[in-house]
Amino acid sequence: MWHETKTQSLLNIEYPIIQAGMAGGATTPELVAEVSNSGGLGTLGAGYMAPEQIRSAIQAIKALTDAPFAVNLFIPSPKYSKGEEQSYIETGLKLTERYRQNFNLEKPQVHQVEEDFDEQLNVILEEKVPCFSFTFGLPSADAIQKLKDRAITTLGTATTVNEAIELEKAGIDIVVAQGSEAGGHRGTFLAPSMEQAMIGTMALVPQIVDHVSVPVIASGGIMDGRGVAAALMLGASGVQMGTAFLTCQESGAQDVHKQKILHSSEADTILTKAFSGKEARGIANPFMEEMAEHHDAIPPYPIQNAVTKDIRKASGQQKNPDYMSLWAGQGTRLSEAMTAKELFDKLIEETGALFR
Amino acid sequence: MWHETKTQSLLNIEYPIIQAGMAGGATTPELVAEVSNSGGLGTLGAGYMAPEQIRSAIQAIKALTDAPFAVNLFIPSPKYSKGEEQSYIETGLKLTERYRQNFNLEKPQVHQVEEDFDEQLNVILEEKVPCFSFTFGLPSADAIQKLKDRAITTLGTATTVNEAIELEKAGIDIVVAQGSEAGGHRGTFLAPSMEQAMIGTMALVPQIVDHVSVPVIASGGIMDGRGVAAALMLGASGVQMGTAFLTCQESGAQDVHKQKILHSSEADTILTKAFSGKEARGIANPFMEEMAEHHDAIPPYPIQNAVTKDIRKASGQQKNPDYMSLWAGQGTRLSEAMTAKELFDKLIEETGALFR
C-alpha cells in the first residue's frame, strides 16, 4: 500500500522515522547510532554543544554506524549589544537568586551565552554529516549553499504554514511540521504570537502539505504506531519523535527526567520560558510555576538559558526534579522504558505494512 | 479493511462522522437533517435554546429525515447567589460599555443568564431524540438514568483522559475527545488549568482510547478525509467535525462568519473568554484583543455570555466581524463553501474504503 517516499530516498533510510535532535545531552552517540542502525534517522541535538564537542560526538556516531544520521543546530538569535546583554544577565541573575541560595551556589560569571553557529556548522560541513536539521529560523543563504555543495540533506522546523513556505523558498529539502503537542522548544520564528503558532499536529500537517511541494515530516504527540500511521494519513512523508526516544535506555536524559516522563499524564505539561527565555513544553514543576509570575521580565533566549545553567545542573545533581527542565510532549502516558531498538522494532511491527 | 464500529452500531448510522452540535444558530434543521440523511449523525446545537425552540427544531428535523440525529446541551454551571450574579452582571456591563456606545445600544436588562437544563432535557426525553450529546461536565445520575430508560445514546465531551474516565464511570455510551485544535467552547470540566487541558488531538485520542472501553470519537482539527483517516488510525471509532460544517450552505452561521473562516489561516485563532466567560477558540478580532487586557475581571460563564449578547447581535446585524464571536478551529485553510451533502460525499469518497 505504501511506497518508498521522497523522504526515504532523500535521507537514504529504510523507514521515515526520525529521532528528534533534542539538545541538552539526551542524544548520545549510542542513541543516534541505534536509531540509524535500525533503519531510521538518528539525530545529534548539538544546539548547546561547542564545535569540538560536536566533532567528537560525530566521530563517535560514525564509529557506531555506517547509516545516515543528522545533526541539529539552533539558528542564532538576534545579537544584543554588550550593554543590553549585561543588563539582561543581571535581571536574570536577580530573578533566579533565591534558587541559587537554596542550592548554595555562588553568583556565576556568565560569559558566553551562545555557541558560535558558523563554527558549529563548519564541523558539520567538514565531517560531511549526511543530514542537517535546524530550528528557530533559517540559515543564511550562504550557509544553505555550503550545505548543498556538500550534498547534505537539510531539514527545517516549521510551526505554521508561512514558516514552511519560507523554508521551501530558501531551498530547504524537507519541512518538519512541529505541532503544539511537541515537547521542548518551539521552533516558531515568524508567527504573530506564540499562542497563534500553537497549532495541533492534526491541523498543522495537512495545511503545510497543501502549501509546499517538499516532503513534510510530522512531529508533536507521535509516540507509537498509531501516531505514525495517523501522520502518514495526514499526508506526511514521515515522522519525527522526541519524547518517545527520551526515555530509551540509550538516551542521555537524566534518570530523574526519564522517571518524571514515565509517570506523567497528558495534562502535566505547560509552556515555559523560565529555563531558556524561549517558550518550550515541559512537565510543570515549581521553578516553572514560580517563575511564571515574572513572565514578562524573563530575559530573552539565549541569555536566560545561560543564567539558569548552574541551577538546572545543581537540581539534576541532587536528582531533584523541581528546578531542572523536564522537556516532554503531550503524549507522556504512551512513554515506555526500553531500548531504542525495541522501540523502533515495535513501531515497525505496528506500522510496517504502511511502508511496503 | 474496516468493519462496522461499535459507534456506528450504537448510533445506528452508516458512517461514524458526526456534525458537531454548535450552539448559536449554525445547526439549522436543514444542516442536521442533511448530514443524517447522508449517513452521518447531524446534531442540533441547542445549548442556548429555550425548551420550546428546541422542540420546534426537533420537529423540523424529524420532518426532514427519518435517520438518527443528536441534540447537544450544555451542562449547567454552578449557580451564583442573586447578589453575586448582579455584581458580575454590573462588572460585565461596565467592561463592555464602550462597545455599546459604539453601536448606540442602551444598557440592557440582563434577566435570565442560562436556560433551565432540566426543562431543555425534558424536551429531548419527550421527543425521544435518538442521541444526546453534551459538554461542560456530566449530567446528574438521575438525568443519565432517564436517558437510558428511553434508550437514548449518550455522547459526552472530554478534553483530558481523566474527564473521559469520569464519563465512562457515569455510564455515558461514547466519549468525544476534544483536541486543542477544536473551534468554539472547550468542554473542559476537571483539568487543573485550561492550558493543561489544551491537548492536541494527535496526543489526546490514543491516550483516551487506552483508558476507556467505550468508543472514542476524535474531534479538533479534522476537516477532510485525511483527518478522518488519521483519527481512525489513532484508535478513534469515528470523528466529530464542527468548523468544516460551519461554512456549508445549510449552516445558519452568519455570512460574515463564514467568510472570515473561508479566508483565515491556521494561525488566526486564539482562545478567548471575552464573549461568554468560558474559554473558546475563535478567529482573533478587536473585541477579543481589547478584552484580553481585562482577562481576570471578565465575569464567569454564563453571565458574560448574557452580557455580550446585544453587542454580538449588533455587530452581526451590521455585518461587522469585529465584535461578534467568530468560532473556528485550527483547520481553517481547509474550509470550503459547499453543501453539507457535497462535503459528506467528499469525505466518504476520500475515506470510504476505511469504512467497509
From TrEMBL, chains A, B:
UniProt xrefs under Pfam families: NMO (PF03060)
Cofactor(s) this protein cannot do without: FMN
InterPro entries referenced in this protein's UniProt entry, alphabetically: Aldolase_TIM (IPR013785), NMO (IPR004136)
Coiled coil recorded as keyword: no
GO biological process, one term: response to toxic substance
UniProt catalytic activity: 3 propionate 3-nitronate + 3 O2 + H2O = 3 3-oxopropanoate + 2 nitrate + nitrite + H2O2 + 3 H(+)
Ranges annotated as spanning the membrane: none
Endpoints of the signal sequence: none
GO molecular function, one term: nucleotide binding
Taxonomy, superkingdom: Bacteria
Keyword Cell inner membrane in annotation: no
SUPFAM superfamilies: Inosine monophosphate dehydrogenase (IMPDH)
Keyword set, alphabetical order: Detoxification, Flavoprotein, FMN, Monooxygenase, Nucleotide-binding, Oxidoreductase
UniProt similarity note: Belongs to the nitronate monooxygenase family. NMO class I subfamily.
Entry function: Nitronate monooxygenase that uses molecular oxygen to catalyze the oxidative denitrification of alkyl nitronates. Acts on propionate 3-nitronate (P3N), the presumed physiological substrate. Probably functions in the detoxification of P3N, a metabolic poison produced by plants and fungi as a defense mechanism.
Protein name: Probable nitronate monooxygenase
